[in-house]
Amino acid sequence: MQISGEQWNQISSLRGSDLKGVVFEILRGAASAIQREESDDASTLDIVPRLAKLIEDRQELASYREPFSALARATGLWNYIDKAVASEPDLLLAESVTVPELDGITLHREQVDALNELLAGRNLILSAPTSFGKSLLIDALLASGRYTRVAIVLPTIALLDEFRRRLRSRFDSRFTVVMHPSEEASGDAPTIFLGTQERLIHRTDLGKLDLTVVDEFYKLDPSRRDDRCITLNAAVYKLLKCSRQFFFLGPNIDNVRFAEGAKWKFEFLRTKFSTVAVDTYDLRQIDGKEERLLEEIGEDGNWPALVFVSSPDRANKIAGKAAEGMAVSDYADAFAKWLSDNVGANWSLIQTVRFGFGVHHGRLPRAIASQMVRLFNEGTLPVLFCTSTLIEGVNTAAKTVLIYDKKINKAPYDFFTYSNIRGRAGRLGQHHVGKVFLFNEAPVHEDMEVSPTLFADEEDAPLDYVVQLDEPLTQPTADNRIAAVRHSLALDWPDLRLAASLGLEVAQRLKTKVQSALDSGAALVWTGVPRYPEIQAVVEVISAVRPASEFGAYTAKSLTYFVSELRKAKGMKTFLNLYDAKYTGSAESYDNVFRFLRACEYGLPQWFSLVEAFVKSAGFHANYSLFVQALSRWFLAEELKNLDEEGIPIQISERFHGGESKAALTDRLAELAMSGSAELTPFERDWIISALELKVPNQ
Description:
This protein is an alpha/beta fold. Helix content is 47%, strand content 10%. Residues 115-271 form the Helicase ATP-binding domain.
């Protein structure tokens, strides 16, 4: 049963008996289609969320709530059954698939099918649309009481925090959630290990796992050209070895390839079952696309709206242009002022935020990016310019997605990526019908096949992957290759694994550069706290192999300067204010400083450690460990960095940290926020209350 978006718009314009008559015919036609065994047809499913919106908006359709619930039951969209008016059979079904532990959420048919597979003990790989509700299945498994120790692999730290918040709110009394590297699981207590691949691969406290969950599992495929893919495969291999069951989730996958005789067996469930409808507006042929973009994001009927662009620079630039021409919110002044005081007044994003536009990309400090998403979901920033980093991870309450660019960085995105971007429009329970504005030609449809390295033939496994495993693969050729590379690099096992995480080929080049630098008397031999020339010597060797621009600097000299200034600064606010005062580059590139800070967390410390390993293998005594550990936390206390990952910016927490534990500092911040302390601005109090999810009386 096919009804176009234009026809739905016409139906929405009807009133009274005219509307009731059309809706009656739609209900009858849909019932007839289902009797012809078309309940899984996309156009039939599409009717349910559209009717839900109509019935919700129009009082004259109240009498149709019961037959609508019957339609929801028949299509399998059981979460749309209206329990207040449903017939007894429909109500019984809805109650039977409602999970009290998950705030009374009702599952739909395809969720129940997937859940039954998992509760039967089978390994499952699930491919489903963004609006399917895949995360609910994880929570339903945890609520079942059958799993005690669970590892969940997520692609970004922002997503770790989102999961941590949700799991803590639902399972705080049942599980300990371990997320930070400094945290350790206690014995056999029920534990959820949350981590990126880089964190989980190094954990030594996993023990025996009942379940391993991998979100966005398509990243296991090396053809996606993700630098972190090898480490992801190695981390998942490590987890599966000690886990009795696994559950992989991802969107829009058509097939999973695996070698005959692969170590792990699984069921693959592919579904197109979507819980929201989407209207697509084709703007490919129009003139003046930028003007049309500004027109659409200025229309409050499209809010909350995500604007997808190709890169952080594009996001900054176009958001800035939008802010020059209009204001879409009058409530973001406090956020803009905080950014000006705590980052720097020259940051162009401040003006963008002041006029109601948010920006989200991988360079932003995490707590600030998290605040952008929170204010977007609350409506304070009704328009959010984003790159693929948001599309791949954090959930938003977007009604509308405007796909403005056709590339990610400089490469055209494929149909798979396009589908994932498009899938962000609409949200179950908030926006039954989403909107997508398409400004460029959609990619040609191609089936998406995922070929994880850990499911492939061991003979074909990349050496970078094999080296990172806790145990060698069974093929003798793998042993021979490992022996050869160990001999060539002259590294022990831990350092060889470190080299593999950065790439064995590039490690070989780095070794050559280190040896050459040592021969010329470079200051690479040091221990403890290095002097400026010693930092510079290491940075110059690294930059000869990997451009300084990848670490957020223009040259090796400027990278050394940044590291030195970060180390000398009395806090994050001081460092950023200094950067702001001296910055003379373009507005779009201002946030390279945040790219530098990300590199200090992960990337630059590993390169320093590998240089140290090669210096020691050349026969010299060197120990960079104290410096590397401090660099990875920005030369600040570990507690401050951990709170930043949980949504509290360092510029706030560093003002109150006196050396106490993270728990004690958290309690102090909570007390200050709840008591209305003048040591915090009203905006900061609200930020802390939100980040810590504190209960405010009478709210």
